[in-house]
Amino acid sequence: MTHLQFADSLSRLGTESAFTVLARAQSLAAQGRDIINLGIGQPDFRTPDHIVEAGIKALRDGHHGYTPANGLPALRHAVATDLHRRHGVEVDPETVVIVPGGKPTMFFAMLMFGQPGREILYPDPGFPIYESAIRYSGATPVPIPLEERTGFAFEADRVLERITDRTSLIVLNSPANPTGGVTPRAEISRLVKGLAAFPRVAVLSDEIYSSMLYGGREHVSLLQYPDIRDRLIVLDGWSKTYAMTGWRIGYAVWPDAALDHVTRLCINDHSCVNAAAQHAALAALTGPQDAVAAMVAEFDRRRAHVVRELNALPGVRCPDPGGAFYAFPNIEGTGMRAAEAQDLFLEEAGVATIAGTAFGARGEGYLRLSYASSTETLTEAIARIRAVL
Q: What are the names of the required cofactors (predicted)?
């Protein structure tokens, strides 16, 4: 009998429960059950046609080989131009690194700054891969509590008070997954001012939902703060904004001191990003943006509908999400814990949601629902939940 000797570090690696719930939902569907999946976080729109055609053309034109490890020069230049257009900031294209999605940037940052004896701060509730990658690096994860009373925006003082001489990195996310929380400019400015006392602490700002804001809310990119640019990593990409989740392409802006390190990580990890996907991403940034505006407007309509319907359920209250495409209703009034409600709604109502505890201990009492589905589908899903309640 074989006894494989796996590395101890694998025991520290977590997972993303959305994919676990997706697998269960697909299993039930294969058994003939009618399942509505509000668990997975991806737009239900098609990638705009001009982007798809650019990818096809790239293949037909013979772009089948390797590209530079940090991405095509034209694409990195387009990213810098787009960041200037959206945020009014100057970015050197040489500091832009193209990667296969958003997660490589997270992992590279954790590997670069995490090791035993160090601490990394991250949002709770927050995207589960933050904590997973921190633990894998050997560092100690230190949660930044996010609360419903602030709309799940982080509070600068609560971040700053958690910094110690062991802190090497802070992870921030606005607009946020899973809560839809958006942190206002005043709070971000207060944090940046406080970070002056901790010059050795790096910052990873996950801004993947930066184009998805509602109700007149403003996205404040940390790139707008020159004082921290020399220790700031900004994560963004195409998956959410352009409905390109399956294309697996994202980017980050890195500080100069980290560029050699991240390039070597890219070479060791994936060599380079799929060439055709990079040409498609270039078309996304340089082509018409009307599809993005239409998608965000539709998400806004769905958001208002979902919040209204959820707040009408017995024992449920749902704060207004300011960005992304997630609702994060409080279900404490139902008397159920998060995991119990997740399982009940999937097994009895045929509606896949994600327990708030999948995003951290402070997610107890909440569920995440993605409203990246049609209004008709959302209406049916909430009607089924109402019947079970």
A: pyridoxal 5'-phosphate
For the chain, the domain total comes to: 2
Note the Cα 141 to chain centre separation in Å.
Answer: 18
Residue showing tokens 């009014």: 88
**Beta strands in 24-176, from DSSP E residues, in sequence order:** 36-37, 96-99, 119-124, 140-145, 167-173
pTM above 0.85, yes or no: yes
Written as six digits, the tokens of 26 are: 């697909």
Computed on alpha carbons and rounded to an integer, the radius of gyration of the chain in Å comes to: 21
Domain coverage including residue 349? 8-46+290-388
Same domain, 306 and 278: no
Cα separation of 160 and 37, whole Å? 38
Token output for 359: 């995003």
| Residue 113 in domain | yes
Same domain? 82 vs 195: yes
Final residue in a domain of this structure, among 257, 286, 315? 286
In this prediction, residue 3 has a pLDDT band, given cuts at 50, 70 and 90, of confident
47: confidence class by pLDDT, cuts 50, 70, 90 = very high
Could you tell me if 211 and 202 are in contact, meaning their C-beta atoms sit under 8 angstroms apart? no
pLDDT for position 42: 84
> One-letter amino acid identity for 298?
E
> What is residue 29's predicted lDDT score, i.e. its pLDDT?
85
254 and 346 share a domain?
no
Quick one: which of 114, 89, 236, 252 has its CA closest to 170?
Answer: 114
| Pairwise CA distance, residues 256 & 230, whole Å | 7
Would you call the peptide bond into 128 cis, given omega within 30 degrees of 0 as the criterion? no
257 phi/psi in degrees, rounded to 5: -65, -20
Asked if residue 273 is part of any domain, the answer here is yes
- How far is CA 281 from its chain centroid? 18
With bands split at pLDDT 50, 70 and 90, how would you rate the model's confidence at 155?
A: very high
Contacts of 62 (CB under 8 A, 6+ apart): none
C-alpha–C-alpha distance, residues 334 and 313, integer Å: 9
* Average pLDDT score over residue span 247-262: 98
Q: Is the pLDDT of residue 22 over 80?
A: no
